[in-house]
Amino acid sequence: MFKNLRKRWRTGVVAIAALGLGLGAVVHTQGASAATWPTATGTVKLTATKAVSGTLDGGLKRYVGSGALGTGDQDEGQDPMFTLADGATLKNVIIGSPAADGVHCLGSCTISNVWWENVGEDAATFKGGSSAKYTVSGGGAKGADDKVLQHNGGGTLTVSGFAVADFGKLYRSCGNCSTQYKRAVVLKNIEVTAPGSSLVGINSNFGDTATFSGVTIVGDSGKKISICVTYKGNNTGAEPTKVAAYKGSTGGDGTNCKFTAANVTYK
Predict the structure, then answer these.
(1) pLDDT above 90: residue 221
(2) Cβ partners under 8 Å of residue 212, min gap 6
(3) Which CATH number covers residue 27?
(4) CA dihedral 231, 233, 238, 239 (to 10 degrees)
(5) How many Å separate Cα 265 from the centre of its chain?
(6) What pLDDT was estimated at residue 14?
(7) Closest among 95, 91, 40 to 65, alpha carbons compared
(8) Which residues have a Cβ under 8 Å from the Cβ of 160 and sit 6 or more positions away?
(9) Domain containing 261: what range?
(10) How many other CB atoms sit within 10 Å of the CB of residue 262?
(11) Which of 52, 88, 169, 189 lies in the 20 to 30 Å Cα band around 244?
């Protein structure tokens, strides 16, 4: 309930600010990142999921959901704004509010310079097989009550040059999917702006790994944000069990959570 209230409040702030600044301006919500967010070159309304094969260059237009895609809350099972076929690329896109379930990668994919102004259910979900390779380069996301990047399939996700602010988890390896995999995530040159709960959640019992370098955290003087949290995942749909949490000041375990204190800078 409180998450949805928070989401509605934030969506209202975005809408009011947009009226005052004009549709071409990028609105910063509470806890906005220090990254330079782009200005939208126009607005495109999607009433149904847009399928992408090959490359879609959005020219930094703002895409917003309407009709069946018109929700920006945390309800499960929403349709995505975009589905990317195996090998597809989505680039130079601003996803506004409401954002539904963001982007779904059905196989290997590239997401480049994509910005989520107010994350809906999730920003992006990765669904490929065990050999899939996903790349998220540049861009950023803010206003995520829960997850930003959701990894339901297998393979390796590499995230670089990405900014995240006002979020729950930046990345989560699915803790209770009916089909489970050994998953890997690599985060390089990530800018994190508080508030937030954790950067990564992985399932140590399935052999997941998370590797970090060049993480900068802004506005977290109490060092409350966990860098890496391990869970005991399952394939029954039950809530996964938390095993351990590693902070930036201590480093990881070197096995599943691969980072040292030197990989994390606080500002």
Answers:
(1) yes
(2) 187, 188, 190, 199, 200, 227, 228, 252, 258, 259, 263, 264
(3) 2.160.20.10
(4) 20
(5) 21
(6) 37
(7) 95
(8) 135, 136, 137, 138, 187, 188, 189, 190
(9) 2-266
(10) 9
(11) 189
Q: pLDDT, tens digit, for every residue of 43-86?
A: 999 999 999 999 999 999 999 998 888 666 656 678 999 999 99
Give the total residue count for the chain. 267
Tokens, residue 39: 């200005």
Q: What is the pLDDT of residues 115-124, one digit of tens each?
A: 999 998 999 9
Q: What pLDDT is attached to residue 161? A: 98
Residue 69 main-chain phi, psi, to 5 deg: -100, 15
pLDDT given for residue 78 in this prediction: 86
> pLDDT by residue (tens digit) across 137-179?
999 999 999 999 999 999 999 999 999 999 999 999 999 999 9
Residue 195, amino acid: P
The CA dihedral of 106, 176, 174, 198, to the nearest 10 degrees, is 160
Give the HSE-up count for residue 175: Cα atoms under 13 Å, Cβ half-sphere: 16
Q: What's the pLDDT tens digit per position in 98-115?
A: 999 999 999 999 999 999
Average pLDDT over residues 186-207: 98
Q: How many domains does the chain have?
A: 1
* Identity of residue 32: A
Q: What are phi and psi of 167, to 5 degrees?
A: -145, 165
**Rounded Cα–Cα distance for residues 51 and 53 (Å):** 7
